[in-house]
Amino acid sequence: MLNELQKEIIDLKEEKNAIILAHNYQRKEIQEIADYLGDSLGLCMKATQIKDKDIVVFCGVDFMAETAYILNPDKKILIPDARADCPMANMLSAEQIRKAKKQYPEAAVALYVNSTAEAKAESDILVTSGNATKVVNALDEDVVLFGPDTNLANYTQKFTDKEIIPIPGDGHCYVHKMFNPGDVAFKKEEHPNAEVLVHPESNIDVQEAADLVLSTGDMLKYIKESDKDEFILGTERDIISRIELEIPDKKCYPLLDDAICKTMKLHTLEKVRDCLLNEEPQIKVPEELVKKSKQSVERMLKASK
Ligand code: 13P
Ligand code: SF4
């Protein structure tokens, strides 16, 4: 049952011809009113299918909303709290990419979608946690500059003959960095029948201690299709809210209770309502950067089909 505020948002959304896109790490009450919930790849794909809408309310972090803008510069892209950024995205600057390109002129630049619009403009192609291996293997180049996430770079290296060079070399997500192999052992003892699924942003020793390494969207798909009933999830804990909404018969436990992405949680129902009412704050990307980065987004979408 939806509460009064949720109903108010749904009415406003109809009135303004808006769509609400939300990432799997959003609060449960926001997940309940989203038109589409997904991982970064799913959200990118959905952003190509919103031609009939005037407004997109993007409940995620800024790089996700910027990618939606790059694909739809003619639409109003609203973000309920403009402070919702991804610290990892800010770990790699456009200048650092330009320097690396000078050092490795033969290399392609495959950039994690968790990056700034300025960095995206310097890339050849984007990747997400759900398609990195596929995208890298589809490249013509044998050397690939890959950033900002070092763990995803090292994970991808395991499945390709290409040489992956992580840039800047220490980029990481503070939420997934919290996990260590001891947490996996501890949770396994508590739930011996549970399978351990971790995100590729986790450290390599945590990935090795887990049963599977998956993006948030792939975790969901795997759990839906699995015969197993219990899972320990090494990612942001609100992924479990989505599982409770969509697969309530499966039991999922967070690998760590405090694996919380603080900026994802800046969005609240009140802010979703207010941004629809005021049509602010808006996410915009300068025209020059849209031109330069659009090709990288589209190349990724093509390569991940
Ligand atoms: P997904 O694409 O797997 O949802 O990951 C995005 C992200 O920011 C993980 O921390
Ligand atoms: Fe960025 Fe980590 Fe939050 Fe994902 S969980 S948005 S990588 S800080």
Offer a concise description of the structure:
The chain has 305 residues and is of the alpha/beta class. 40% of the residues lie in helices and 16% in strands.
What does this protein structure show overall?
Helices cover 40% and strands 16% of the residues. By secondary structure, the chain is of the alpha/beta class. The strands form 3 sheets. Strands 2-1-3-4 form a 4-stranded parallel sheet, with helices on both faces. Helix 4 crosses helix 14. Residues 61, 86-88, 114, 173, 175, 201, 236, 261, 264 line the site of iron/sulfur cluster.
**Principal-axes shape call:** globular
Rg, rounded, reads 19 Å
Measured by DSSP, the beta-strand proportion falls in 15-25%
Number of helices: 14
What keywords describe this structure?
binds iron/sulfur cluster; 305 residues; 12 strands; binds 1,3-dihydroxyacetonephosphate; four-stranded parallel sheet; 14 helices; alpha/beta
Write the layout of secondary structure elements.
Layout: H1 4-15, E1 18-23, H2 28-31, E2 36-38, H3 40-46, E3 55-59, H4 62-71, E4 76-78, H5 94-103, E5 108-112, H6 117-120, E6 125-127, H7 132-137, E7 143-147, H8 150-157, E8 163-166, H9 181-190, E9 195-198, H10 204-209, E10 212-213, H11 216-225, E11 230-234, H12 239-246, E12 251-254, H13 269-278, H14 287-303
Parallel strand pairs: 1-2, 1-3, 3-4, 5-6, 5-7, 7-8, 9-10, 9-11, 11-12
Helix pairs in contact: 1-13, 4-14
Bound molecules: 1,3-dihydroxyacetonephosphate and iron/sulfur cluster (SF4).
